[in-house]
Design a protein that fits this description.
With about 160 residues, the protein is mostly helical. The protein is about 80% helix and about 0% strand. The longest helix has 25 residues, at about 125-145.
C-alpha cells in the first residue's frame, strides 16, 4: 500500500482501534453475551465468537499492512512473546486442552494487536484513542444505569 493509501486509511484505522479498545474493556460484554450475574459466557456462544473473530480479523488486516513495524516491535517484546508461548504450550498439560489452546490463541492475537497499537501510533494518538474509549465506556455505563437499571445497577450489593 502506498503512502497516500495509508494516509487515507488512518481515520478508519483510528476508529477501528477505538472500537477494539472498547471491546477489550469488556464494558458491555456481560450485558450482550452474559448471564444475570454479570459474567461473560463466551465458551460456545456463537455471537461472541463471531464478534471476536471479526474484530481480530480486521486487526490482523491492519497488522498485515504494517507488518514491518509489528515485526520490529515483536523483536523488542521477546519476553512477552515467550510467556505467550508458554501459555500456548500449557495446552499440553491442561485439564481442558482445547479451551486452553483457544484462549492462548486469543492471548497471542491480543499481544500482537498490542505490539501493533504501541508501535503504530504516537503516545499522543494512543492517549486520544484511549480517551475516546473511556468516554464511550462512561456514556454506555450511564445509559445502562438510566435506561436499563436492571442491568446497569448492581442490586445484589
Amino acid at each position: 500500500m502506498d503512502f497516500m493509501g495509508k494516509q487515507m486509511l488512518k481515520p478508519i484505522e483510528k476508529a477501528f482501534n477505538v472500537a477494539m479498545l472498547f471491546y477489550t474493556t469488556g464494558a458491555i460484554l456481560s450485558f450482550v453475551f452474559g448471564s444475570s450475574d454479570g459474567t461473560v459466557r463466551d465458551e460456545g456462544s456463537i455471537p461472541y465468537l463471531a464478534l471476536q473473530l471479526a474484530l481480530y480479523a480486521v486487526a490482523f488486516c491492519f497488522i498485515a499492512i504494517r507488518w514491518r513495524l509489528v515485526l520490529r516491535g515483536a523483536m523488542n517484546a521477546k519476553w512477552i512473546l515467550a510467556l505467550v508461548g508458554i501459555a500456548i504450550a500449557s495446552s499440553a498439560w491442561s485439564q481442558d486442552p482445547l479451551f486452553t489452546f483457544r484462549r492462548s490463541l486469543v492471548l497471542l492475537a491480543t499481544t500482537l494487536y498490542a505490539i501493533y497499537f504501541g508501535g503504530r501510533f504516537t503516545i499522543t494518538e494512543q492517549l486520544r484513542m484511549l480517551s475516546w474509549t473511556f468516554a464511550l465506556v462512561v456514556f454506555s455505563s450511564l445509559f445502562m444505569v438510566i435506561f436499563l437499571p436492571h442491568y446497569g445497577v448492581d442490586h445484589g450489593a
